[in-house]
Every structure is written in structure tokens, then in C-alpha cells.
Design a protein that fits this description.
Number of strands: 9
Helix content: 10-25%
Strand order of the largest sheet: 4-3-2-1-9-8-7-6-5
Strand content: 35-45%
Number of helices: 6
Largest sheet: 9 strands, antiparallel
Structural class: alpha+beta
Distance between the termini: 22 Å
């Protein structure tokens, strides 16, 4: 499976229009777009947000890693900003430039954009079939965003809740958002695993976010 994002935002369509892609949003055109990409960037973010009844909130980052990759030349610029965001604000001199393999746990060389995404999915426990989804009508009606909630179990959700004793589990899901490129190809934009739970008066939201931005593909 594959997933990605490209700059821009499509217009809201009618429900009748999107029925075509509800059951299978990942089309052959979408797969070809990723297969022919030659310049991409990727990012993986893991974070925890807390909120209490008094309106106090905080955000901590367990991982914030990015890479800009030229797939033709097999060159990259890869950074780990996790420590730089430890205080809640970005401290630029704490950003570390490392190898892609050090940051993401596998080598991108010889892989296409969807191959790289597969590696990101596997290394972050997002192991559910991306074609087995349910379209999120409520979100689409509210703001026009096309979200697809994955139906199968995913180990990333178990890892986010590991060793956590909560009073209430508010939500737990893995989903991705799609959009149309300027060439009219609908592609997944990002994938998110999210759990939200309450311990006493404090609500916790843990998120793993994966994104691939395609800067050049077959249709451009």
C-alpha cells in the first residue's frame, strides 16, 4: 500500500461524486503517481497532548523526524528534531542531521515512494490493509475533508496504549486523508494513528503521524 501528500487543497465535492472512491480510494492512477515520483519528503511525528478541566494543556514530542529525498540521484537530507522540540519550542541548534537509516530504521535506496512508505508503515506498526476502510461521512459533512478509517486492527494502537491504566478510552483509530493533485489524481495525503483517553481529570491524546510529500511525479 502507499500514501502521500502534495501541496494544495481540492474543492469540496458532493457525496455522489466521492461514492466512486469510497470503497477503493487507492486506484491504479494513484499507485502509478507514487511509482513514478522522483523527489519526495517524508516525516514521522509521535506526540502526546494533555488537557485538564481547568483549561491547561501541554504538548510533548516523542519523535519528530524528517527527510528530503531525491530518488533519482539517491541523495537525502535527513534530520531528527525530537530533542530540539523537547521544551515545546523549536531550538534550532539541537536539530541533528543523521543518515536516513539512523532516523527511520531502514534504507530508502532502491525503493520507490510507495516502497518507502511501506517501510515507514512497517517500522511504526501501521500494519492494516489500506483498502479495507470506512469513509468518514461526518468529517466530510463538517469540513469537506476526505478521511478513511481503517477497519482492521493495527499494532500501533496497542503500542500507544501499552502499560496505560486509564479510566476511560474516548477513541482509538487509524485513518488517512486523501486529496486530488493538480493533475486530478486522488492520493492519500497522510496517515494518523490516534488514541484518546482520560485518567482522572486529565485527557491524553497520543498520535503517530506519517506523511510523504510528492514534489514531482508522472502526472506533473
Amino acid at each position: 500500500m502507499l500514501l502521500g501528500t502534495i501541496s494544495g487543497c481540492g474543492k469540496k465535492e458532493s457525496k455522489e461524486t466521492i461514492k466512486v472512491s469510497e470503497d477503493n480510494p487507492i486506484t491504479t492512477e494513484c499507485e502509478n503517481y507514487f511509482a513514478n515520483a522522483n523527489h519526495i519528503s517524508v516525516s514521522v511525528v509521535k506526540r502526546t497532548e494533555t488537557n485538564d478541566l481547568d483549561g491547561n494543556s501541554s504538548m510533548t514530542y516523542e519523535k519528530y523526524v524528517t527527510s528530503d529525498i531525491n530518488l533519482k540521484d539517491e541523495t537525502d537530507s535527513t534530520f531528527d528534531s525530537t530533542e530540539a522540540l523537547a521544551s515545546g519550542e523549536l531550538i534550532e541548534d539541537k536539530i541533528k542531521e543523521l543518515s536516513f537509516k539512523e532516523v527511520f530504521g531502514f534504507d530508502y535506496k532502491g525503493k520507490s515512494a510507495d516502497g518507502i512508505f511501506n517501510g515507514l508503515m512497517e517500522s511504526n506498526g501501521m500494519d492494516t490493509n489500506l483498502k479495507d476502510v470506512t469513509f468518514d461521512d461526518e468529517t466530510y459533512d463538517a469540513n469537506g475533508r476526505k478521511l478513511y478509517v481503517l477497519n482492521g486492527e493495527s499494532s500501533v494502537l496497542k503500542s500507544l496504549l501499552k502499560d496505560t491504566k486509564y479510566d476511560e478510552l474516548k477513541s482509538s483509530k487509524v485513518y488517512y486523508q486523501t486529496m486530488k493533485t493538480e493533475a486530478g489524481v486522488e492520493i492519500p495525503e497522510n496517515e494518523t494513528a490516534e488514541v484518546e483517553y482520560r485518567i482522572g481529570d486529565v485527557t491524553y491524546k497520543k498520535t503517530v503521524y506519517i506523511e510523504i510529500t510528492i514534489y514531482s511525479g508522472e502526472e506533473e
